[in-house]
Hints:
mainly alpha
Amino acid sequence: xxxxxxxxxxxxxxxxxxxxxxxxxxxxxxxxxxxxxxxxxxxxxxxxxxxxxxxxxxxxxxxxxxxxxxxxxxxxxxxxxxxxxxxxxxxxxxxxxxxxxxxxxxxxxxxxxxxxxxxxxxxxxxxxxxxxxxxxxxxxxxxxxxxxxxxxxxxxxxxxxxxxxxx
Length: 167
């Protein structure tokens, strides 16, 4: 198998790996909505493993690109984009296959980006709600931040927060 065919195969594997990340992201979205923290943690761990796989595939693709350049007599270690690489492919079928694979991967990456943005917003909303709840439970009198003479502090004792109250 030539280097360009290996590159195309690696790009298809990258697409599949990113599709798997989308599946995990959808599961994570549902877990965040259901407030299932343990499932979110498990999914984040699975996502981390998937990202490592993607990094390995990307490194293999980069290595194959260098091999392809060497096959064509280019001794440079340029990090070419797929569009630049396609200019060096002269077989129209292989060039078309390369461009189609690039388009599929691009579409998948855009879906993943949108999903990650949505999950980020959901997690931020959950954290904002938790922050708000903690603020409500730990209410302090508004005058607690105003300077008072130490001898007068006991005279105007503020209402204790929910967690500070005894009873």
